[in-house]
Automatic annotation (TrEMBL):
Pfam families, per the entry: Aminotran_1_2 (PF00155)
EC number assigned by the record: 2.6.1.-
Alphabetized GO MF terms: pyridoxal phosphate binding; transaminase activity
Statement: the UniProt record of this protein carries the keyword Transferase: yes
Protein name per UniProt: Aminotransferase
Coiled coil stretches, renumbered: none
PROSITE patterns the record matches: AA_TRANSFER_CLASS_1
The Aminotransferase class I/classII large domain, residue ranges: 35-383
InterPro entries according to UniProt: Aminotransferase_I/II_large, LL-DAP_aminotransferase, NHTrfase_class1_PyrdxlP-BS, PyrdxlP-dep_Trfase, PyrdxlP-dep_Trfase_major, PyrdxlP-dep_Trfase_small
Keyword tags: Aminotransferase, Transferase
Organism listed in the record: Aquirufa rosea
Family designation: Belongs to the class-I pyridoxal-phosphate-dependent aminotransferase family.
Superkingdom classification of source: Bacteria
Cofactor(s) the protein requires to work: pyridoxal 5'-phosphate
Amino acid sequence: MSFHISPASRLEVVKEYYFSTKLKQIAALKASGIPVLNLGIGSPDLAPSDATIQALVESAQKKENHAYQAYQGIPALRTAFANFYQKHYQVNLDPNGEILPLIGSKEGIMHIAMAYLEKGDITLIPNPGYPTYQAACALTGAEVQSYELTEANGWLPDLVELAKRDLSRVKIMWVNYPHMPTGAQANVAFFEKLRDFALTHSILLVNDNPYSFILNQHPNSMLSIPGMKEVAIELNSLSKSHNMAGWRIGAVLGQQKFLAPILTFKSNMDSGMFLPLQEAAVKALESNEVWFAQQNKIYAARQKVVFQLMDLLECSYDPNQSGMFVWAKVPSKYKDGYELSDKILDENAVFITPGGIFGSQGNAYIRISLCAPISLFETAIQRIKTQSNGI
Ligand SMILES: Cc1ncc(COP(=O)(O)O)c(C=O)c1O
């Protein structure tokens, strides 16, 4: 008899992350000699600022900088986040209590879910939306209900429709504006309605805000809405805005009473970030408008070429979308985005993310990441033009 240990049944509610399996498939294709172009993943290919890297190097060279760090991050990092929120979003936050640095906002989603949700609770997640909301919340034993977003409604939740549900057990509603994967933005009027909805139904809002600086004319924090801090916390991250995805630096921000349970959980699960990362993050957070303008110039040029690629695929899209992706609707001759994605991978060795991985409301869509040089998109266009069995 072979030795067998069964995994915990709680894992039955999640599958291996889509990109974890897809990247293995792409690596296998590449190993077999097929030069796959990966237009799928939102991992910035650009570098952090020189000042950030220099700060990392200088700090790492100091022998005394390699010890464990405080669970709440160094005061300088919390102050840097506070200054960043004040300067860019006009939000006042107390560095002593209203800012908790995180090893990326992805881990923060799990920490928040574990700190607040349990069996018997309901949590609301966007469909389409970032898949980690579903996975993290389902692992807590809570019931995960999606709220449908539609193109017709500007990818905003229909709060009137949502209020018709029994919301008595709903504890947390996850929102994410600017929205991934659709690139939709929410305006102040919507956030005000959302605040009132949360107050009426006693729901804690969690806004996941990693994309506010990418191709967005008006970077905003939901916490800037008057009264929002009463009912909401926000996640932010240096992964996309500062090209630091591999560094794993983010923060959860909001009233101390909301952050305290998150720290209780987090401090039992991980430890403070490596000090040189924190010191370098302080430098990154000091980046000014010139830095963001430089990044956006590059993303805007890439977006233009990706729009051409979408035109070639006969997909339709909103030219004003934010974030580091282009989200587009596939023509009706395809069953869904999966069919088009499979066809392009098979015929042209180009990987494009099918929108359905973000939820059923994304089925008719595909998503292309802007995290690649223009030459890669041009090569993809050439391949599709010359090697397809009919688009
Ligand atoms: C909407 C959204 N939230 C959170 C994350 C995770 O970001 P981080 O690198 O901060 O964990 C991502 C990454 O793709 C994302 O798209």
